[in-house]
Amino acid sequence: xxxxxxxxxxxxxxxxxxxxxxxxYKEEMKSGLVEHYSNGKTASLxxxxxxxxxxxxxxxxxxxxxxxxxxxxxRMYDPxxxxxxxxxxxxxxxxxxNQSVVFEDSHARISYAQSVACxxxxxxxxxxxxxTRLAELYNAFLKRKAVIDNVTAVEQSVLMLSLDQLIxxxxxxxxxx
Length: 177
Prior knowledge:
The protein is mainly alpha-helical. 75% of the residues lie in helices and 0% in strands.
C-alpha cells in the first residue's frame, strides 16, 4: 500500500489557516496557489512537489509567514497588541498614582488598571481590546496626566504669585522696604 506524501498534510493544514479559507473552494484555492508558485506550469500539488521542489518549499514557507500575519494568528498572540497593553497599563497606573490611589500590592494595582481600561473601552476582557482602541486609551490617559501636570504647575505658580503678593503686603505694612 502506497502512503500519501506527509508534506501535503502540511500544505492542507496551512491552507486551512489562510485568511478567507472556505472548505467549499479548497480545490480551487489549491489549484490557484500551485499554479501561482509553479508560474503556470502545473495545477497539481504532487506534480509541484516532484518537479519543482524549490517552488513547493517556497510556497510552504510563504504560507507559514502568512499564517503569522493572519487575523486568526493575531488573535492568538500579537506582539504589537501586547506592547500596547503594557503601555496602557503603565499610563493608567501613572494616572492612578497622580490621583494618590493606594493599593495593597502591584497585582491589585494591575488588576484595577485592567478593569479601568475595560470600562473605558466598553469591553469585558482586557485581552480582547483592539490595538486601535488600546492606542486611543493610551493617548487619553497620557492626555489626562498632562492636564493634571499642567494644572499642578499652574496651581504652584498661582500659589507662588500669591505668596509674593503676601510678602510684599507684609513688607509695606511693616515698612521693611
